[in-house]
Amino acid sequence: MLNMEDKIKIFKALGNETRFKIFKNIFTGGYACSIDDKQPNDDIIAQATCVTSIAEHFDFALPTISRHLKELKDAKIITMTKSKNKIYIEPNIETMKEIAECFAVLVNDYDKGVVYQYDNTK
Amino acid sequence: MLNMEDKIKIFKALGNETRFKIFKNIFTGGYACSIDDKQPNDDIIAQATCVTSIAEHFDFALPTISRHLKELKDAKIITMTKSKNKIYIEPNIETMKEIAECFAVLVNDYDKGVVYQYDNTK
DNA sequence: CTTTTTATTAGCAAATAAGCTAAATAGCTT
DNA sequence: AAGCTATTTAGCTTATTTGCTAATAAAAAG
């Protein structure tokens, strides 16, 4: 379960152009998104999701992309799994499900006129 | 329709602790959320949504809260409507619906194994 | 065992963000 | 018009963020 701090970290991570593009790239890029070698869709731009492969799509130095990926990982938006000398990057869909649920509840409750006691932890 | 830039602005706005709390306060606080004088729920912390009323719940100077509110407004997360010499603040539920929809689609498509062509505009 | 590949860490500079106080603006209310 | 009330703007300081290059680490390949 994501607490308020977690959510703020997620929004902060997505509130930067470079990280948002990396996020989109990872979630919609059709990469081979796993060390289990799921096959990518061939029409799509990339073949793998190690740090270097992601960085190739951006005009920034590798350490810069590495740091952005770390921030996405710290926000639990992606996972990074080391295997041999590469790091495999995958979407963390669980986090996205929780965020999706938060907004769904917000909108739903608003439409129903539900009013909450303000809670500084969620 | 929110484009990529709009979304980044929304996430940036929500990715700050003070603004996130203001956002939660406005969306879940049960204020009298309109110049039409919708009645607030009496159990709830606040009675109105002018800038000063919001600021009372935070340990920051008024201009600081004012600037945060402007950022939430610029991100289309809230609306600010001037009436006489007060500004009435309301949730912009349309924006939240769009964001909710984005995450719902992301999660849904992921579960269905849908793969997109990377699109740098959405 | 040296080189290459993959990725991170360290340290720096420039830009941006977040807070403050003081001053300005705009509309009431006497 | 003088003085409130509500809000924003301006200008400043400090902290954080975002980029870079150089150096380091760890595993793979020759």
Model description:
Chain A is elongated, with a radius of gyration of 17 Å. In chain A, a hairpin with a 2-residue loop joins β1 (78-83) and β2 (86-91). A two-stranded antiparallel sheet of chain A has the order 1-2. The first copy, chain A, has 5 helices and 2 strands. Chain A has helices at 4-14, 17-28, 51-55, 62-74, 93-112, and strands spanning 78-83, 86-91. With 122 residues, chain A is mostly helical. The longest helix of chain A has 20 residues, at 93-112.
Oligomer state equals homodimer
Which spans of chain A have pLDDT < 50 for at least 5 consecutive residues? 32-47
Q: In DSSP terms, counting alpha (H) and pi (I) runs of 4 or more, how many helices of chain A?
A: 5
- Shape summary of chain A: elongated
The count of DSSP E runs of length 2 or more, i.e. the number of strands of chain A, is 2
SSE arrangement of chain A, N to C: HHHHEEH
Cross-sheet strand order for the largest sheet of chain A: 1-2
**What proportion strand of chain A?**
5-15%
Most residues in contact: chain pair: A-B, 43 and 43 residues
Helix content of chain A: 40-55%
What's this, in brief?
In chain A, 50% of the residues lie in helices and 10% in strands. Chain A is mostly helical and 122 residues long.
Question: What keywords describe this structure?
Answer:
homodimer, 122 residues, mainly alpha, two-stranded antiparallel ribbon, 5 helices, elongated, DNA-binding
Architecture blueprint of SSEs:
Two copies of one chain form a homodimer.
Chain A (H helix, E strand, L loop, with lengths): L3 H11 L2 H12 L22 H5 L6 H13 L3 E6 L2 E6 L1 H20 L10
Helix pairs in contact in A: 1-4, 2-4
Chain A binds a DNA duplex (30 and 30 nucleotides) through helix 4.
